[in-house]
Amino acid sequence: MHFRHRKWFWLAVLLFFAGSALGSVFYSQPIWTINLIQRIGFRLSGVESRWVTLDGHQIHYYVRGPVNGPAVVLVHGLGARAEDWMALSPYLARAGYRVYMPDLLGYGQSEKPPDAAYSIPEEAALVVSFMDAMQLKQPDLAGWSMGGWIAQRIAWEHPDRVRRLALMDSAGLKAPPEWDTRLFTPTSHAELDQLDALIMPHPPYVPEFIAQDIVRLSEKNGWVIKRALVQMLSGRDVTDAELPGLTMPVLILWADQDHIMPLSLGREMHRLVPQSRLEIAPGCGHLGPEQCPKLYGPALVRFLQADPALGAGEEVLR
């Protein structure tokens, strides 16, 4: 065989076995593989992955955008992670903001201490410690779902630390869920399908091998979610009484197809915060910031850049 032909032959063989090995890894650990590819993509797009020690715990976070840009801190929800902001955060970075996306205690790549309560007050204190560690005196703060509840508590307890507040499909009001909260830690493909139907309007088909891996990871890490749910469902930390006392500009972004946090809750938050603005994303579900970034991203940027902030009112996004 000619040398040149032999070179291409062995390259083809190498690529075949590399592809076979990657395919085998993907089939046996699809979520790990997807996460790895996703993280590589983040780094290639300029997103920095960092760690900081807060209250003795290793906390992971991502940061993107101009180093000297005004700071925005994004707080994810229950069972979520910092990566879930990657569809929305480019809108902020392109607008000149320095975007900080921490993994809360117990989530994503952050430490999962067995003795933590994973309560709203505990996570809120951690975010304040994160702001201190990043030397952010008065950043804009945005929270999604449980992250919105955490952001509300920070804004109420430390009003001088939050310039503007954005709440996206946020929890926090005293309103018992009308769905089975056990679905947040699915134990079967059927339960995963039920959860998907709750969080998105048109859930995609999930192959069996991927569903099995999701269930496996749920069984491994679901104890954090269960412990957090016990705290939240106790009703001790609801914000109904505190919301009217918020003084900073507040944007309430909500999906009209959200079955986890129905739009009626967004309207109630809007009523409780007189200076708030409610903007509604049509056709979107609870994963709006991730699946409808073309609506959520520009709306958030407009709110943060408005001087003064957009006036109170209600609007359907286009």
Give me a quick take on this structure.
This protein is α/β, with parallel strands linked by helices.
Describe the protein.
The chain is an alpha/beta fold and 318 residues long. The protein has one domain (45-316): Alpha/Beta hydrolase fold, catalytic domain (Rossmann fold). The chain contains 10 helices and 9 strands. The protein has helices at 3-28, 30-44, 89-94, 120-133, 146-157, 189-199, 208-233, 263-272, 288-291, 293-305; strands at 48-54, 57-64, 71-75, 98-102, 140-144, 165-168, 250-255, 276-281, 313-316. A 9-stranded mixed β-sheet has the order 1-2-4-3-5-6-7-8-9, sandwiched between helices. Strand 3 (71-75), helix 3 and strand 4 form a beta-alpha-beta unit. Helix 1 (3-28) crosses helix 2 (30-44). The termini are far apart. The model is unreliable at 1-19 (pLDDT under 50).
Return the domain count.
1
Low-confidence stretches: 1-19
CATH architecture: 3-Layer(aba) Sandwich
Structural class: alpha/beta
Secondary-structure element order, N to C: HHEEEHEHEHEHHEHEHHE
Shape designation: globular
Characterize the biggest β-sheet: 9 strands, mixed
CATH class type: Alpha Beta
In DSSP terms, counting alpha (H) and pi (I) runs of 4 or more, how many helices? Answer: 10
The N- to C-terminal Cα distance equals: 63 Å
What is the topological layout?
Elements: H1 3-28, H2 30-44, E1 48-54, E2 57-64, E3 71-75, H3 89-94, E4 98-102, H4 120-133, E5 140-144, H5 146-157, E6 165-168, H6 189-199, H7 208-233, E7 250-255, H8 263-272, E8 276-281, H9 288-291, H10 293-305, E9 313-316
Helix pairs in contact: 1-2, 4-5
